[in-house]
Amino acid sequence: MSGVLYGVGLGPGDPDLMTLRAHRLIAGAQVVAYPSLAGGASFARSIAAGVIAKGAREIVMDVPMTVARGPAQAAYDTGAAQISAALDQGDDVVCLCEGDPFFYGSFMYLFARLADKYRVEVVPGVTSITTCAARAGMPLAARNERLTVLPGPLPEAELRARIDGAESVAIMKVGRHLEKIRAVIGDLGLMERAMYIERASLPDEVVCPLSEAPEKAPYFSMILLTKGADPWL
Amino acid sequence: MSGVLYGVGLGPGDPDLMTLRAHRLIAGAQVVAYPSLAGGASFARSIAAGVIAKGAREIVMDVPMTVARGPAQAAYDTGAAQISAALDQGDDVVCLCEGDPFFYGSFMYLFARLADKYRVEVVPGVTSITTCAARAGMPLAARNERLTVLPGPLPEAELRARIDGAESVAIMKVGRHLEKIRAVIGDLGLMERAMYIERASLPDEVVCPLSEAPEKAPYFSMILLTKGADPWL
């Protein structure tokens, strides 16, 4: 009997925001797998560090950050082959994913490679979007309001068109796109509605109005724009 | 010293998808508060039932389901007054919220009434959106893809305009709007990309292609549409 592949969302960073199911699966895992970026530390592993059992085998997928797809695809191919070998031996494999596995998560690439051949269970996690909203004290959407989620790397004209006329907007992966996004929001006259959140739920979290955001944003940063939801008083 | 008001997301329904922080706060709470709809049972309380301490005081907000806003506003006013009284006595109050408190959650109405006067901490929870994606095996968004979240009660013309040209779409609160939404998706030629999910993560969960969805949908139902994300193989 093959093992089961678990794609486990770890939440935004604070280990306390992991689900009970994620905690139990990780604590009981004999094999864990996770990506690390360009030879650096793995954020996913750091969230789960206090839970991974001593002696668990760790499959690390070192994903290079290149514009060309080939090197990253090769890293996922290699990782999928190592995971397959463990599953074929009958071991379950718990794949660690920051946030939620199916929401801008790298687990999708393993799912695409392995879901046809093995039993896979995806365990959803708390996303950065609702964590940022909680930390900024900004309700995202009520009643019949719409929410638009946009990645910061989109071209300026597309960001402008998608933000204009939207209700609540969450802009993910701000990073080096901060200046472009700030200019668009300023041009649209929405600056006073925008909050900037960096590394939500972590000890070095930053939460401030976008107008006061730092010059440089890390990859794990977000901008939230809301209409200032009707508080329904 | 006043107590602290916690708005705690419980996740989509399976108590195992509660966060560690939610679990600890609820287990330690001497006062919990939650809404129930129109005199019925409280879904939020049912998720937390196994965790609430014996002897905890329970503040129930019975929210009538009327089109007019007044009766529901009055229920939140009364609930906020009861919660205030407990906070003023120095008790912490843990408010139970299905899903995430700031994502279509009733906690926003208490937040609007109490956040100026008391210390409030919002604990994010797993949303139904990523839970439905996990259960349907449908990755929601990767790389620079957009996600649009729409409530099912929106007018047909608006749903059509927002779905047409979107990438991934999550339609919440399907309920009695199922036929309208199904017609729009059919007209747009997107039926084969759409999944229907009802009561995700609960024992009586339903997951099927939208084309095979039942005639009647409960309030806690969702439709997910994805482009069939590039699996990046």
Automatic annotation (TrEMBL), chains A, B:
Which residues does the UniProt record annotate as the domain Tetrapyrrole methylase?
5-209
What pathway does the annotation place this protein in?
A: Cofactor biosynthesis; adenosylcobalamin biosynthesis
| Record-linked InterPro entries | 4pyrrol_Mease (IPR000878), 4pyrrol_Methylase_sf (IPR035996), 4pyrrole_Mease_sub1 (IPR014777), 4pyrrole_Mease_sub2 (IPR014776), CobI/CbiL (IPR012382), CobI/CbiL/CobIJ_dom (IPR006364), Uropor_MeTrfase_CS (IPR003043)
| Keywords assigned by UniProt, alphabetized | Cobalamin biosynthesis, Methyltransferase, S-adenosyl-L-methionine, Transferase
SUPFAM superfamilies this protein is in?
Answer: Tetrapyrrole methylase (SSF53790)
If you read the UniProt record, what top EC class would you report for this enzyme, in one word?
A: transferase
- Enumerate the Gene Ontology biological process terms: cobalamin biosynthetic process; methylation
Which PROSITE patterns does the record associate with it?
A: SUMT_1 (PS00839), SUMT_2 (PS00840)
Similarity remark: Belongs to the precorrin methyltransferase family.
This chain belongs to the protein called Precorrin-2 C(20)-methyltransferase
What lineage does UniProt assign to this protein's organism?
Bacteria, Pseudomonadati, Pseudomonadota, Alphaproteobacteria, Rhodobacterales
